[in-house]
From TrEMBL:
<dbReference type="InterPro" id="IPR050597">
    <property type="entry name" value="Cytochrome_c_Oxidase_Subunit"/>
</dbReference>
<keyword id="KW-0813">Transport</keyword>
<dbReference type="InterPro" id="IPR036909">
    <property type="entry name" value="Cyt_c-like_dom_sf"/>
</dbReference>
<keyword id="KW-1278">Translocase</keyword>
<feature type="transmembrane region" description="Helical">
    <location>
        <begin position="242"/>
        <end position="261"/>
    </location>
</feature>
<dbReference type="InterPro" id="IPR006311">
    <property type="entry name" value="TAT_signal"/>
</dbReference>
<feature type="domain" description="Cytochrome c">
    <location>
        <begin position="142"/>
        <end position="220"/>
    </location>
</feature>
<keyword id="KW-0249">Electron transport</keyword>
<feature type="domain" description="Cytochrome c">
    <location>
        <begin position="47"/>
        <end position="126"/>
    </location>
</feature>
<dbReference type="Pfam" id="PF13442">
    <property type="entry name" value="Cytochrome_CBB3"/>
</dbReference>
<keyword id="KW-1133">Transmembrane helix</keyword>
<comment type="subunit">
    <text>The cytochrome bc1 complex is composed of a cytochrome b (QcrB), the Rieske iron-sulfur protein (QcrA) and a diheme cytochrome c (QcrC) subunit.</text>
</comment>
<keyword id="KW-0479">Metal-binding</keyword>
<dbReference type="InterPro" id="IPR009152">
    <property type="entry name" value="bc1_cytC-su"/>
</dbReference>
<dbReference type="InterPro" id="IPR009056">
    <property type="entry name" value="Cyt_c-like_dom"/>
</dbReference>
<keyword id="KW-1003">Cell membrane</keyword>
<keyword id="KW-0472">Membrane</keyword>
Amino acid sequence: MKKLSARRRHPLAAVVVLLLALAATGGLYAAFAPADKAQADETAQSLAIDEGKKLYAVGCASCHGTGGQGTSDGPSLVGVGAAAVDFQVGTGRMPAQQPGAQVPRKKVIYNQAQIDQLAAYVASLGAGPSVPNDKQYNPEGADIGKGGELFRSNCAQCHNFTGEGGALTHGKFAPTLEDVDPKHIYEAMQTGPQNMPSFPDTTMPEKEKKDIIAYLDAVNGDKTASPGGLKLGGLGPVSEGLFAWIFGLGALIAVAVWVAARTAKAKKS
């Protein structure tokens, strides 16, 4: 007893007791809290899927099928992932107003909570790209110059060098990228909506997607800045061809008239 009392009076006794208490508390938390949190997350996810299924049955099933298997009026949604839903519904493209060559962007009819529920349900049908977080698409600190190179190599053929969009074939078009949420641009590159090819991380890494978003933010940030005057390329991807057609063809006609006049004059003389 004397030895035990002496140990209790030791200067480090309080520290040892405190450390033991902290270790016990940490052990109990590790044993019970993660399981509770995981269970709560699983319950929340299950509820989101159930609510998303209800929304899907009302707004999507008529075209995409009751189980997302697709119909003659809409493609299968199995494996498209939550990112595709967040993009299509978050930009108002879905639900579509009517069939056509391409579904345009329009007013969004669902709030973000409902979009998340729809995305959760569609994601449950098959694995696919998930909705990106802010760190993935935030252009802060990205390489704008590199983004411009990547955009001109992979995107400008349809969207124009500054992302202002333009006409394609058979009634299709590349939409303008002005005033588009960076998250939706990232999701479009991930999922390849409608006529656009997809650029998964295996093809275009996350950093390169951020560089492209930074480039678009830079070229579309100031609508009044155009140091070179009227930017021909900014009028659309066919503007250069239209310019060549009008002035080039006009020049050819002028040359043809001049040659004909010279020939007629030579014959008379």
